[in-house]
Amino acid sequence: MSAAGAGPQPIAAPRKRWRVAYVVSHPIQYQAPLLRYLTSHSAVDVTALFLSDVSCRSYRDEGFGREVEWDVDLLGGYAHEFLPTLGRSDQLTSLRPVNRGIESALRRGNYDAVWLHGYVHPTNLRALAAARRLDLPVLLRGESLLLGKDPAGLKSRLRDWALPRLLRRVDAFLAIGSANRDFYEHYGILPERIHRVPYAVDNRRFAAQAREATAGREGLRSKLGLEQGRAVLLYASKFSARKRPLDVLDALAHLHRAGEQPLPHLVMVGDGEQRDELEQRAAALPAGTVHFTGFINQTELPRYYDLCDALVLPSQYEPWGLVVNEAMCAERPVIASEAVGSGVDLIVEGQTGFRFPVGDAVALADRIARLLALPDRGRALGRAAAERVGTWDFAADAAGLEAALQQVVLCESTEVAA
Asked: What is the rounded distance in angstroms from the CA atom of residue 368 to the CA atom of residue 314?
C-alpha cells in the first residue's frame, strides 16, 4: 500500500530544546569537537563562555615546559564568547584571569541553564552565585575523584568541610566516569541527581586517522630507529612528577635484570620538567631501547598509537586520562596505574588492558611482560578496547546532558519539530 493510501500519518512529537551557557576556562582541544557535536546533533543550544583565550595562539605550557600551538580547530562550529578580563586574558591559573561581566552574560543570553566546568576558579563561583540570583539551574561537570588522594591531608579535610556546602547549590551533576560519580556520592549527592556524561574524544577521527597511519607505520619505525618486529610501548603525556614517567623506565630496568631479551622499545611522546632525568635513566638501559620524540601535536598522535603495541600511563593522580580513549580508538590495549580515572571504566583486567598499583615498577614490569607474551602482543585486547571505548562517545554525552536538563529545567523551553 502506498503512503498516500495508508491514511493519516502520526505527527512527530515536538522535541524540547534548551539554551545552555557553558562556563569553561579556555578553548580545549578535547572539548571543541564535543561542543560541535552538541550543536549539530543534540537538543542543546550551547554557548561556551570562556574565561581565557590562552590556547587560541602559541602559548607556554608549563607542564610541557615549552611553547604549544594546537593544530586543530578550537572555535569553529559552535557559539562562544570570551568574558572580559581585568588585565591579561592569556594567563590561566587557579585565580587568573580576573573576569568581569559573568552575570550580565548570563542575563542577556536568555539561557535555560548554566553548565559549569569545575568549581575552583573564582569566575566559576561567581557564575554559580549569579545563576542562583537569576533562578537558573546549575549543572556541574568536574574531574574530581577520590583515587590517589590522601584522606588525612589538610587539603582533604578542608575540602570535606567546604565542598558539601558548595555542592548543595548545584542542581545536577555530570559524571565523567565511575570514579567521578563515586566522588559525588561520597559527598552526599543522591544517585538520581548524577548523570553519565563521560569524558570522550572524537572516536571517529582517532580511529580513522590510526587506520590511515598503518600505511606509513614502517616509515615511522625507520625514522625513530626501531628494530623490525620488536615490541613497542608508548608513553604519551607530560614529563612531570605527577605522571610518573620514570616508573616505565624502572619497569624496563627490572625486565632487563630479569633477563628479558630483547626489551620492548619505549617511545616517549611529550616533554617537561623531568626530561633530563628521563634521558639519564634511559642511558642506563641497552642502547636503542628508549626513544624521545618531543611534543607531538593532535593530528600526528594517531600515527604513534598505530605504531605501538600498548600505551602505558603510570600517573600518581589522573582524573581521567584521555590518551587512554585515544589509544583504544586505535585498537591498542592500555596499561595504567590504579590512580588513572579512565582505567576504572575502560580497562577490564586482561581483556582491554591491565592496571597496577601506583609507583610499583615491579608490578608494572609484570603487566608489560604479560601483555607482550599474549598472541600478537595483545591485538585481541586492542580490538576489545576499541569496542569498549565505542560506547564512551559524544552521543552518550548528549544523552546524559539532555537527561540532566530534562530533570532540572522548570521553565518553558522552545519547542521545535523533531
From this structure: 12
The torsion angles phi and psi of 118, rounded to 5 degrees, stand at 90, 165
Q: What is the CA radius of gyration of the chain?
A: 23
Which value, to the nearest 10 degrees, does the dihedral of the CA atoms of residues 365, 229, 299, 314 take? Answer: 0
The CATH class of the 13-200+393-416 domain is: alpha beta
- Looking up cell 607482550 gives 372
Cell output for 71:
593544530
Q: Strand 15-24 relative to strand 414-416: parallel, antiparallel, unpaired?
A: antiparallel
Phi first, then psi: what are they for 301, rounded to 5°? -60, -40
SS3 state of residue 235: strand
Q: Read off the pTM.
A: 0.91
Regions of the chain with pLDDT less than 50: 1-14, 411-418
Look-up of cell digits 556524561: 197
* 290: nearest Cα among 251, 319, 318, 337: 251
State residue 366's pLDDT score.
Answer: 98
Cα 166 to chain center, whole Å? 24
Q: What is the dotted CATH code of the domain comprising 203-389?
A: 3.40.50.2000
Q: Where in the chain is the domain with CATH 3.40.50.2000?
A: 13-200+393-416, 203-389
Burial class (CB in 10 A: 0-12, 13-18, 19+), 121: buried
Alpha-carbon torsion 88, 128, 158, 181, what sign?
negative
